[in-house]
Structure formats: C-alpha cells, structure tokens
Design a protein that fits this description.
The protein has helices at 9-18, 28-98. The protein is mostly helical.
C-alpha cells in the first residue's frame, strides 16, 4: 500500500487537506482565491472611498471659491447701483433747474 510520503504530490495534498490537524489546508486553492478576492474587494473599496473623499474636498473648495466670487460681484454691484442712483439724482436736479 502507499504511504503518505510515497504518494504523488496532488494526492498527498488531498489526503493532508482531509486531516483535521491542518484546517487551513482544507480550503486549498479555493480558499486562496477567496482570500485574494476579498483583498481585491477591500482595495477597490478603499480606493473608491479615497476618491469620494477627494471629490468632496474638491467640491467644498470650489463652493468656497464660488461664494467668494459672488460676494465680490455683489459688492461691485452695490457700488455701481449707488453711482447710478447718484447720477440719476444729479440728472434730475439739472432737469429741474432748466425748467
């Protein structure tokens, strides 16, 4: 009969995997593939989380820039409206003086 040492390597792995002394060998190649798949999923998930965080920071930064630009435009608009109102008042005063 065959002894464990005299068995072909593939058969020896199957016999060793069936023993309860080494539970990790029970899973063999399927376990290794599952571990790699879990690792790949984790890496991809972390990459997506990092990309989401970068996009959120970018959106926050652009929103702050837009708010700053809006404030500048509002300040210029108010100044222009004040100047226009002053010019209209002066024009009305000139028109009244001519009558």
């Amino acid at each position: 009969m065959w002894t464990l040492g005299a068995l072909p390597p593939a058969v020896a792995l199957v016999v060793a995997a069936e023993s309860t002394d080494q539970p990790l060998l029970q899973y063999g190649a399927v376990g290794i593939l599952a571990a790699f798949a879990l690792l790949a999923v984790r890496v991809l998930f972390m990459r997506e989380v990092a990309a989401h965080d970068r996009e959120r920071e970018r959106a926050d930064r652009l929103e702050a820039q837009l708010q700053h630009q809006n404030e500048l435009i509002q300040e210029r608009f108010v100044t222009t409206l004040q100047q226009a109102a002053q010019a209209i008042q002066e024009a009305m005063a000139v028109m009244r003086a001519r009558q």
